[in-house]
Amino acid sequence: MASGNSEPPRRTLTANAVKVLIAGGFGVGKTTMVASVSEVPPLRTEEVITAASEGVDDLSGVEKKTTTTVALDFGRITINPELILYLFGTPGQDRFWFMWDELAEGALGAVVLADTRRLDSCFAAVDFFERRNLPFVVGVNCFDGAYRYGTEEVRSALDLGPEVPLLLCDARERDSTKQVLTILMEHVMARNDLAPSY
Predict the structure, then answer these.
(1) pLDDT per residue as tens digits for the range 115-131
(2) What is d(CA 182, CA 136) in angstroms, rounded to the nearest whole number?
(3) By C-alpha distance, which of 116, 129, 117, 106 is closest to 23?
(4) What does pTM read for this prediction?
């Protein structure tokens, strides 16, 4: 016989895993962004830049860079008990672009990191996501010593429509990276007519 004081069944929450790409040109801060926010030690596939890359990789503007991602970066952040983001940082050099299609498979959205010192390095990433109709935001990574352009100046230079969120950020700072990811999730939900639950 059932007791009148029985507790209602507990609802089990199932986390939704969402794949997000962190993309952009060579040396824009993708590895740094993933590491700044990941709640687990990030997986990195960095290798030392050697003389073999001379004449292949364009180091202009990032001459002091000594390592480069050769496959991907991976990290994870829990937004709330129902939403976990899996972050995949893409390699930036042209010779590793063949991996982008594989990495983009199943992604819900992307962050395109831009460096105003070398803005042309993110054109290919913007084009990649526009052609695939994959929601993306542009995070302008504010490097020390670089001239600070306004967001509308950058939007105009990248020929972005008003529907693409664009914001200034610091890929080294956890809170700044979280803000970029939050804006991306809001953009994805707005495009899919979903209400945010976080």
Answers:
(1) 988 888 889 999 999 99
(2) 12
(3) 129
(4) 0.76
